[in-house]
Amino acid sequence: MSYIARRLMRAILLLLGVSALCFLFTEMAPGSFFDEMRLNPQISPATIAALRSRYGLDQPLVVRYERWIKAALHADLGHSIAYNTPVAPLLWSRAKNTLLLSTTALFLTWLISVPLGLWTGARPGGQVDRLVTLVSSLLISVPELVIAMALLAIAVRWHFLRVGGMMSADFGDLSAWEKLSDLLLHLALPVFILVLCETAVIVRHVRASVLEVLQARYVQAALGYGTSRTRLLVRHVLPVAANPAISLLGFSLAGLLSGSLMVEVVCGWPGLGPLILEATLARDLYLVIGGIMFSALFMVGGNLVADAMLFALDPRIRGEGNGADGH
Amino acid sequence: MKLIARLTLQVCLFTAACFAAAPAPEAAQPGEELARMPDVSGRYGGHLTIGQRSEPKTLNPVTVTDAVSREVIGRLMGDLIEINRSSQQTEPALAKSWKISADGRIFTLQLRKGTRFSDGNPFDADDVLFSFRVYMDEAVDSPQRDLLIIDGKPIVVTKLDQYSVRFALPRPYAAAERLFDGLAMLPKHLLEKPYREGHFAQAWSLNAQATEIAGLGPFRLKHYVPGQRIVVERNPYYWKVDHENQRLPYLDELVFLFVGTEDAQVMRFEAGETDIISRLSSENYNLLSREKSRAGSQLADMGPSLEYNFLLFNLNDLGGKKLEEVSGKQAWFRDLKFRQAISSAVDRDSIVRLVYGTRGAALWGNVGPGNKLWINQAIPHPSRSVETARQLLKSAGYSWNSAGQLVDSRGHSIEFSIITSSSNGQRMKMATLLQDDLSHLGMQVHVIPLEFRAMIDRVFQSFDYDAAIMGLGGGDADPNPEMNVWGATGTSHLWHLGETQPATDWERELDQLMQQQMVTLDYAKRKQLYDRAQQLIAENLPFIFLGSPNILAGANARVGNFHPAILDPYTLWNSDELYVRGPAIERAGIR
Amino acid sequence: MGIKTSILLAALAFSHLILLFAGFFAPCDPTTQDRELPYAPPTHLRFRDASGFHLRPFVYAWTSSSAGEQSDDYQENYREDRSREFPLQFCVRGASYKVLGVFKTDVHLFGTTEPGKLSLLGTDSYGRDEFSRLLFGGQISVAAGIAATAIALLVGSIFGLIAGYYGGWTDESLMGVTELFLSLPWLYFLLGVRAFLPLHLSTVRTFFLLTGVIGLIGWARPARLVRGLVLSLRHRNYVLSARGFGGSDFYIVRRHILPEIAGVLLTQASLLIPRYIAAEVTLSFFGLGVNEPAPTWGNMLSTLQQYSVLVSYGWLLAPAAALVVTSVLYSSLADAIHRG
User: Fold this and answer.
1) Do the domain assignments include residue C30?
2) How many domains does chain C divide into?
3) For residue C337, which of A313, B9, B308, C48 sits 20 to 30 Å off, Cα-Cα?
4) Model ipTM?
5) Residue C72 has pLDDT above 90, yes or no
């Protein structure tokens, strides 16, 4: 019980820390939301100043932070300056779409990476292994934006996939089955890009740990005893090699809201990515901070799940107190 | 469970909205005065899709600040007097005629009778009064308020009768009727309540229902899908008719699709998913024109825009700030011969070729060839000469040391930085070309890309920069919007902000000229004044002018009446005249 | 060390040597613009001409196609100017450069005489030779990538080791710090840092800044990975017995734990090096990259982010190819060390 309480306290401290540092960082960054209007010779500085004070941007940092905390305790994350609507519903409506995209990608990534990593780790230097290494090097080295753009260019010419948005214009007219297929066709490209880029990283790690474990003595011994390779891989190697993979899973879970930003922007997927990216560049403060808070929650959740899995996998870890003496 | 109920409701509304066909234009009512466009013809039906780089933020015409939202709002709203983007002249719109008093201060506008908003409610002088009251209300903080304040005093709007309104300006203002373009007329019957209750800024946000919004534009809101698209449908009460007295617009629907980046815009346009693309970069234009034979599209190069890009030197008073390095360099920047030498050494040809892909124009003054009404043709366009530059520098007391570097009379080598916005690839390219050009003079120039707002902060606030490459202009061809740039106390007087008095003689003369042209009503006399102003600017080089991009736009071959213009909005200004060509008219809502 | 490892090491050393002496191996100066030849395709090395086969290859110069074709469609269509041949020469004198930043010389391994131009990988939008820029760019990029990875992994593993080994409150608080690091809006921090720094930074300073920033932001991930492993490792029987024998913490970490986490660290290194090299693309958006006209693979890659460039000028993909090769070499090396 006390473990849960500790994690909870840590989560709250984290949220407080992130929010405070957010405010500090946004204060550090030069420029504000209304700067673009300064370039327009037809708007006077008086209007700009009035707008700034209407949105409270000219208040000192501490005052603004205090006000924000008080409102946040009532689940009011402030107003977006650009949209003139409350932040929380705006974020939530987009976050749903992002979650749909990223959970699908997460599921598929791990579905592909783990077996592929196991295979290439068990047969290093083989044809599949060399192919995978080459392709994963390609995917890691080329910036994600370039990959996304290249795939978008291909998809747009190949008229089978629906590119852009989440639903077609006549979504309402479709039958339930057609609705599902429409959604899937729209989902296909962004999920494909995400899966490609993330699989490249995870396969590498799984492969490396599988390789390492296979060299261990007890594995050699088991082989000597005549255990089948599959059984060996699944029952003996995988649980041990899983340790770094679980931490990576934690990262994947933590990045459910923030990891797909580039892909969403390029493919026009109506998620959190384009919203937050624009808000960040435009200095739409409360929207940005709200988005970061959301992501921080997922970060906490993801790491919690990862730790839980680590402990489940290796119960010895739970030996608490000061680990140095093992009692 | 509430979530599911909400989702179901949304889906049902969606379905209903999609099923509803676009409304047919209403038959003309007796007593309704319609604006007849004798040159316009086309046919009804169909829809067009436009890709937008980002999502609109609001549908409120009074508080809107970003260009993307304005693109949508402009289709929904009507103005009293419009500027025809093609001819750049004003035309009667909701005001069928107007009279100007002899001293140019009183405008009496006659409104069209029988005009109705998109929800059927009548439009009259009460709505006009209400609209202007909202625009000028300090509590609302509209960015357009400053347009209506001349010399610190607001324009006084009075209702004469149900269909005529009088505008009293505090003093004569040249081309004052141009002010009315872009000031949307608001429905008093819908917006008076939020205005009275003090939350006008929250009215007509993207969450608003279609029934809450009514305007006098060719289209009205149909539905909005967050993060994906906005669909607007024909306004059945629109007050313009074509040459056969058929009520405009021709299109059933206009769909604004949020596409993401400019590259994604181009890709979708190439694939035929969007029908109109405006403001292409020259690389993308050339790319599309190469593929033209495959896709059926009409590409238009409308010639140089009104935008002018320039190199700006920091000539601000740095008294209070601790910027010794910059103030040391200002001795060079303030030297006219130094700036003239730089202007002579700039390779404007390469800028047009390499930055604009030959689709641009070199500039030596603030008014480029795109602005046919106001350009001073007598301003010289000297070609690039490094020799002349060297002579100028020598005569100003600069010399070259043994390493070939340029040094001033005190022996300091000339070294400075140029900042520019990292998101504007064209200006960054100009900076790199300039860096190379000036190295031929022995100057060491550093190119510093900064994030956009960080750059603005340095130019307007902290003054911590040496030189910058920026761009201005593009709003209107008329000189009046530029008052704040060239007026000595102007807020966009970028090279020397915060002046209370003109700092130099030529700035004083420029200030006087601009003030004079603002109150001169006769075009010929204004042109003379503005010509002299342009001459002063080109001679004294507060900005070293570089170039102006062409306006490039494209549309699918099936788009009829596609007439892009060099004034914003480049392709949608005549959205009421656009129609779909071809044998079959697709029904609204195509994959 | 097996044969494979030696070969890989030799290949890496050779490629890095080329980068180190970029001035010698590059035929042109990386910053000289040629405004008549933007986006020119690679010059073809030819062996055969009208008078037959030559052992020494030669190139033709590019000239623009006849002006008539440029009316509607601007693209510098280039054709070879067959009137003059420029044979390839070795140890030729060209643009001057500094070897290792110290010795000034102008000898290049190969090249052609003026006004011929040997651009093996074409030119960029200013007409600068892409091949030369690739070599010079590799100097900063690869060095920055390796340095940044080293910092991130060093800091990350120290944190991860401490957190994992001592567990309990140490673990909680350190992991809390990593979560903090992973959640923060680094965009604004970077903008703030940029505003704070002087406008012009020399290339060397920018280099240190790049590595520092990337390392500062990047240590959190390796820290968590290492911590997860160490948490499990510290309970292994051999560790417990080593402790029972009185081994100090330091000894145990060095002798028993470090070798086990080496695998993860090597894999991370092979992943991070190309990532961090490409990260300069994002950093330059905030003004923290290496400025013009100095080339790096990062700023050469940023031109590829335009669709029109990506589709029309394929030779500009060279830095991406170079990155892939680097990545493959490093990951094979990491793999070989791991298995060796």
Assistant:
1) no
2) 2
3) A313
4) 0.88
5) no
